[in-house]
Amino acid sequence: MRHGSVLFAVVVLLSSAVFPVGAAAAGSAAVQDQTTLTVSVVSQGGAQLGGVTIVATWEGGESTATTASNGKAFVDVPRGADVNLTISSDRFIRNAPVTVEDASAQEVTVEVARRGSVTVATTSTEGPVENVSVRLLRDGEAVVSGQTDAEGTFSSGVLEQGQYTLVAEKRGYYTNRTEFRIDSEDDREELKRRMRARGRGRERQSSLTLVIMIALLLLILFLYTAL
After folding, report:
1. What do you get for the CA distance between the two ends of the chain, in Å?
2. In order of start, what are the domains of the chain with their CATH numbers?
3. pLDDT tens string 129-169
4. Which end of the chain is more exposed for a tag (fewer CB within 10 A), N or C?
């Protein structure tokens, strides 16, 4: 449904060392034995990305650093901690953090994608359908979920651009499963045309009527042959 876009960025290599920009974590972590993570932020195409803020969190603390033009930054964290790495950027995002278990001095790569979003509109022949359970899956894993509002819409919030599977379910309707791509920050119109919940009520009524008619015909045939 979508035309995919491949993320590219200019690679600028520096012959000099990377200069870390960071803020030390507050709290008890300040007295803990520290170790340094060398974090590289890259696009899905492998280009190093400068100017991206890395946010490292662990139990009881947090630290931030900003990548240099070669896409690298040094992040100080407590040795042995389980650390989650997320990014803050007005251009890029990750759907899930990168987790470093039992942290020690090491290199970590964080792959990011362009920011995107989508609004799902669920409709039937009678109009918008509210309280539809909506899940967006990527590589088989649920990324975001929720329910449509009174106008039959659900907004995903900011997600990675790329390929997704939409699953929409509500009792009394056929499950709607749609493959699509997010390649901009607002894909509402295209999904509104494709995402339609199909009511089961009329099909059930028609099937029941057909069964009753067949039963009556069989009864009439039986009575006729009995006579």
Report:
1. 63
2. 21-113 (2.60.40.10), 117-201 (2.60.40.10)
3. 999 999 999 988 999 999 999 999 999 999 999 999 999 99
4. C
